[in-house]
Amino acid sequence: MPLFEQVTIIGLGLIGGSLAAAVRSGGLAKKIVAGSRSSRTLERGLSLGLVDEGYQDLAQAVQGADLVFVSVPVSAMAATFSAIVPGLERHAIVTDGGSVKGSVIAAARAQLGAHFSRFVPGHPIAGKEKSGVDAADAALYQRHRVILTPVAETDPAATQAVRRLWTAVGADVLSMGPDEHDRVLAETSHLPHLLAFSLVDTLARQGDSTDIFRYAAGGFRDFTRIASSDPVMWHDIFTENQDAVLAAADLFAAGLARFRDAVARGDSDALLGIMTRANTARARFLAMNARTSYTQAQSATDEHHMKADQNAAQARNPEFIVQPGGQLTGQVRVAGDKSISHRSIMLGALADGVTEIEGFLEGEDALATLQAFRDMGVVIEGPHAGRVRVHGVGLHGLKAPARTLYMGNSGTSMRLLMGLLSGQAFASELTGDESLSRRPMERVAKPLREMGAAIGTTGNGTPPVSIRGGRTLKGIDYNMPVASAQVKSALLLAGLYAEGETRVTEPAPTRDHTERMLAGFGYPVQRDGASVTVRSGGRLTGCQLEVPADISSAAFFLVGAAIAEGSELLLPHVGINPTRTGVIDILRLMGADIRLENERDSGGEPVADLRIRSSGLKGITIPEELVPLAIDEFPAIFVAAACAEGDTILHGAEELRVKESDRIQVMADGLAALGVELETYPDGIRIRGVGQGRPAFTGGEIESHGDHRIAMSFAMAALRASGAIRIRNCANVATSFPGFAELAGRAGLSLQVQG
Ligand SMILES: O=C(O)C1=C[C@@H](OP(=O)(O)O)[C@@H](O)[C@H](O)C1
Ligand SMILES: C=C(OP(=O)(O)O)C(=O)O
């Protein structure tokens, strides 16, 4: 279905010619007409089959058009608008492709008169260094952005029509104000062009330029590619966007001066700081283009980007499709421990000296923590294949972040940082993704306020969290109402800055990595039954750390191997800290055959190789004292329960309702969709298992609600299903276990990632 009767394109260069080609190939207009002062261009457009008619008289070209696209150099916009006005149909919509919006809007307002409300300012960001009608390419706009900058007078129906056109040729359309557009483009497009032109010219002016260029290699070529762009077009852009270009050039000059100064002073920390920050910022930019979840929301500079990116991410959120049956065999080294990875960055940053980390989890949650410390001025090298070097700044060396700290999907990052940031001299703000924005933060904020911190959350006690900073904290003696390692850790971290003693008592044992690692960094910690105490005034010293494999990630493989007949797996170097091994205890109570081999100590954390063989499981009532020790493993344990003989009953696990999703409800929905009989309680669930020798699940579709652990648990369920299981919304698996799909595939799961 054509969207338009007649589209007229004024100016048939790369941009206009490519739109003509795209409109033609999409069948979006019954007729395509070109207007150009150059008869040669018109002839080329006709002979390339891009347009049906061409006119040098621009008023004649727009006659009969319901959409006119003006893509002439920005300096020629005013004259072009004035030339087309006499021929414009009353209903015609006019839009443009100019790279500068403020001056083009001013020209349109002055020239188009009453027609101005039908003018939709636009900018397709899809140039290349080639120009002219011969470079026209019907695919130029696919997956490229088009920014529309409508003003108050612009008719919303006209904007809508232009949006439809760009969407139909494959572009992602977003809108923003013209001033913002001109500033953002000055920084991300006009400045790089200015630099490329300037660098080549500067070198060429030196006497022996021919010689210099003979030695120049890939770096020079990459950096200066855009110095081959059209000088006339860029002359216009620099002239028309003068103010914003000058501001961007000044910003860059200041950055260059900082870099020069670091070189002059031989300041290694400053140099590494600039370059590691640039490395990650660029990685984020590249990932944003590939649209993974954490990265794209993080780098969104405005709400529109964010919305467009989120919609795109939603549309491309991968699904797992797992074929039924099979068994798990061989050896699987699962990802590094998430809890320890978070803390290695935090404590490494607060230490004096360098901390070297190996086995760091390169998942999005731990990376969110890493980025937050970079944002607070800490120089961090890596991660490269699990290696990270943190240049500690000492307990009082963090700097105020220039922007809101984005914690992605990670509850641990947000809650631990709330404690740590309460003790800083500066203010800060923490946000997260949709899931984190629903999770309770008052459990940490409330005791921190008792210590004297000034912390705000929303009316519901959820993020964003704002922390005033610059407060004097006082130690407290706190009895935690919930068994939460995150609350305990937040208070201990605040305690490093509080007057006197901070003592935290837990109602049941929770993971103790913070206490162990503080001691490992040489900070005195007193442990006494259910209580932990720290005092301020100590210091942390940088050290070497090896992060063991995460037992929470191993849990999916333990369950998979336990339920799939004929399986035998070896999971090497898994952390078996006794505050984390609830999953082993629970599976063993159910009859699982799990052996710990080669038990040893690795930097203060016990580790072992886990060997598991399939065996008949039976239903049990899960002892409540094991709940905090297996808190993240319940989604996987529920899958095991559905395969066991008889009922498995869980109580005392209401905390599961406030994880990345409501893990009781979301698991219950998924299990029920696969034919499992169950009953939920406010604090748990009863699951009826089928026992050995027959499928425990039908095939079906599962919604993971973006919760990594739900997605991975149901992937394992396929081993005992009678049909394929399709799991939606699996991008967040990368928060805790990047590489899961590949590892599971190698071990024997028939898992395909789609999208
Ligand atoms: O301290 C930690 O590293 C964690 C503590 C637990 O949260 P709670 O403290 O909310 O139970 C756990 O669920 C989370 O995955 C990691
Ligand atoms: C609850 C979890 O993590 P967090 O609280 O850090 O988001 C988890 O990984 O299961």
TrEMBL record:
It catalyses: prephenate + NAD(+) = 3-(4-hydroxyphenyl)pyruvate + CO2 + NADH; 3-phosphoshikimate + phosphoenolpyruvate = 5-O-(1-carboxyvinyl)-3-phosphoshikimate + phosphate. Keywords: Amino-acid biosynthesis, Aromatic amino acid biosynthesis, Cytoplasm, NAD, Oxidoreductase, Transferase, Tyrosine biosynthesis. GO terms for cellular component: cytoplasm. The active site is at 632 (proton acceptor). Its main location: cytoplasm. It is found in: Cytoplasm. GO terms for biological process: chorismate biosynthetic process; tyrosine biosynthetic process. Pathway: Metabolic intermediate biosynthesis; chorismate biosynthesis; chorismate from D-erythrose 4-phosphate and phosphoenolpyruvate: step 6/7; Amino-acid biosynthesis; L-tyrosine biosynthesis; (4-hydroxyphenyl)pyruvate from prephenate (NAD(+) route): step 1/1. Its EC number is 2.5.1.19. 3-phosphoshikimate binds at residues 338-339, 343, 484, 486, 632, 659. Transmembrane segments: none annotated. The keyword Ribosomal protein does not apply. InterPro entries: 6-PGluconate_DH-like_C_sf, Enolpyruvate_Tfrase_dom, Enolpyruvate_Tfrase_sf, EPSP_synthase, EPSP_synthase_CS, NAD(P)-bd_dom_sf, PDH_C, PDH_N. Gene3D superfamilies: 6-phosphogluconate dehydrogenase C-terminal like domain, Enolpyruvate transferase domain, NAD(P)-binding Rossmann-like Domain. GO terms for molecular function: 3-phosphoshikimate 1-carboxyvinyltransferase activity; NAD+ binding; prephenate dehydrogenase (NAD+) activity; prephenate dehydrogenase (NADP+) activity. It comes from the Bacteria. Phosphoenolpyruvate binds at residues 338, 411, 439, 486, 663, 709. Residues 5-293 form the Prephenate/arogenate dehydrogenase domain. HAMAP family: EPSP_synth (MF_00210). Belongs to the EPSP synthase family. This is 3-phosphoshikimate 1-carboxyvinyltransferase. It comes from Isoalcanivorax pacificus W11-5. The lineage of its organism: Bacteria, Pseudomonadati, Pseudomonadota, Gammaproteobacteria, Oceanospirillales. The gene is aroA.
